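TA notes, week 10

Several of you asked for a full example with nothing omitted. So below is the full record: structure tokens for the whole chain, then the designed sequence directly under it. When grading your own attempts, check the secondary structure regions first.
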């Protein structure tokens, strides 16, 4: 089960996905709101925090989550503050009850990862792509439009047209033909 704990929060934050199951994981702790209370309301404990990338809006709450749950943090670059364990490109990682492949997808930020589960066809896209063909900013440090396009295309090679859920770093999750939104982002990123 995937639950966005930032839904309805009126603060500058990313989405915060609690993936409950055999291995309860928080995908991006977000920023600027109390995320610990809603975690405690839903689950007894966390097994890990997994980061799509380390922009402040995605990791501002990291310290409070680590303190509250005494949990390790996984991200692409373990030399960055707060990241305990590195995730290599194409590593397999369990979120909830399912196995995901971690895809290194730079272009928005160098340490950006997406997580894709072939079964049950779920993609955590971070800030790579969003609903309706939107895509991650490339005007921030480490941003690069051509690299972003290549990353989106790489994700398209992995995911299936039968993709069931697209969970993005901002905005609503997409459950109605999410593959089409990723494909549209690939086209839009080339034109912008």
């Amino acid at each position: 089960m995937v639950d966005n704990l930032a839904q309805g929060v009126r603060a500058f934050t990313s989405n915060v996905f609690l993936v409950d199951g055999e291995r309860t994981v928080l995908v991006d702790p977000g920023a600027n709101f109390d995320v610990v209370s809603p975690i405690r309301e839903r689950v007894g404990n966390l097994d890990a925090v997994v980061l799509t990338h380390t922009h402040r809006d995605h990791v501002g709450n990291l310290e409070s989550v680590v303190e509250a749950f005494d949990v390790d943090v996984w991200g692409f670059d373990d030399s960055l503050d707060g990241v305990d364990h590195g995730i290599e490109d194409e590593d397999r990682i369990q979120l909830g009850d399912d196995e995901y492949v971690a895809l290194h997808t730079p272009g928005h930020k160098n340490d950006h990862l997406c997580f894709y589960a072939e079964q049950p066809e779920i993609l955590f896209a971070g800030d790579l792509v969003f609903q309706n063909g939107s895509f991650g900013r490339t005007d921030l440090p480490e941003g690069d439009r051509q690299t972003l396009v290549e990353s989106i295309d790489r994700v398209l090679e992995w995911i299936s047209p039968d993709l069931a859920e697209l969970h993005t770093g901002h905005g609503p999750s997409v459950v109605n033909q999410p593959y089409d939104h990723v494909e549209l982002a690939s086209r839009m990123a080339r034109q912008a």
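The domain at 2-191 is CATH 3.60.15.10 (Metallo-beta-lactamase; Chain A). Use that as a sanity check on your answer.
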